Amino acid sequence: MSETERMSDIDEPRLFEENGIEAHVAALVTPLLKPLGFRLVRVKLLGLNGLTLQIMAERVDGSMTIEDCETVSRTVSPLLDVQNVIERKYHLEISSPGIDRPLVRKSDFFHWQGHIAKIETKITIDGRRKFRGTLANITQDGFTLNTDKAAYGEALYVPIPFNDIIDAHLVLTDELIRDALKKNKDLSQQFIPEDNLNVSKKARNYKN
């Protein structure tokens, strides 16, 4: 069994979590997702169409169909109504991670090793907190980022511990699109080159 397969588990914890209302929503919906075979990627409040509560989820293999999004929406919506966590009108959006996805678990880094990512850390590393580069040398403790846009005097290879990350996501490239389509046949069937390349699947529900 490969390192990626061993770590890809529905109970694998996320590396960082939300705060405030987003954390409250995450705590409410996570127990509902697991029995359905889904796991939470992130919760985010967005200033779209007034206010949008985005719940991003996926199956352990990284897939998430439109039907899956609708299933999650029907499951979590009643609880959010009862708990009234947002005391104003909002849109509930259930979304797949998309191609340029957030990296929230160690298995995400193993799975997408060799691709370009943007990383933000909670402490200064090599004089910076924001990095862009290729993911390499993934271990249980962290990884090396081979920076592709290092300024004069900055290190080209930056070791980053998982414990120091506060945000991470893939950068959309032709190589990433090809790899994502190869790994996800369902996404490949729905992908249209002329469309927005940030392909994700969503189910939306307007909440009073």
Automatic annotation (TrEMBL):
InterPro entries per record: Ribosome_maturation_RimP (IPR003728), RimP_C (IPR028998), RimP_C_sf (IPR036847), RimP_N (IPR028989), RimP_N_sf (IPR035956)
Lineage of the organism: Bacteria, Pseudomonadati, Pseudomonadota, Alphaproteobacteria, Hyphomicrobiales
One example of a Gene Ontology biological process annotation: ribosomal small subunit assembly
NCBIfam families: PRK00092.2-5
Keywords: Cytoplasm, Ribosome biogenesis
Family membership: Belongs to the RimP family.
Localization in the cell: Cytoplasm
Residue ranges occupied by any Ribosome maturation factor RimP C-terminal domain in the UniProt entry: 103-173
Keyword hit for Cytoplasm: yes
Organism, as annotated: Candidatus Bartonella washoeensis Sb944nv
Protein's name according to its UniProt entry: Ribosome maturation factor RimP
Keyword Coiled coil annotated: no
Protein task: Required for maturation of 30S ribosomal subunits.
GO CC term (a single one): cytosol
Residue ranges of every copy of the Ribosome maturation factor RimP N-terminal domain listed in the record: 28-100
Main location: cytoplasm
